[in-house]
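call fold(seq) -> tokens
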Amino acid sequence: MATEVQNPETCALIQRFTESTDGLVVLLESCAGEQWHATCPGEGWSVGTVANHVSGSFRFITGLVDSLANQRPLPETTQEGIDEGNARYALKQTERDQAETIALFRQRSSDAIEALSTLSDQELEMGQPFTLFGGRIATPRKIIERMLIGHIQSHRAGIEAAIAAPK
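ret:
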């Protein structure tokens, strides 16, 4: 069942998110076996591991959005903490197969859309200082644009580089 979004601003953000996730899924589906296991240059992880990492971040990021929209404190997250968490993640990550990863990506994308679908104009602009933004004000809109959509786009570049690399 599709999620109905009432707010046009939220609808536009979800549309951008959906375009980013759909585009990445098409790219992931196009990978041949050896490309799926190719190493993404910026991350040092395989294409499959990066895809799982990206979709794995959706819950954390939509949690930030929810905290902001509901005026709850944000975690004292630092880039160093995220980098350490990503390193631990990479060490314990077991490679999922391509079909399983893509199915999980789609499910996590759907869950993110569901989490974002009720945001009002006012909630999109609820802000507070955030350590990951250098103490500048973060709003749900900024988190969605920079961290949710931006995360997909930045990792997509690494996946594209890995797929295009000569064998």
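The domain at 13-164 is CATH 1.20.120.450 (Four Helix Bundle (Hemerythrin (Met), subunit A)).
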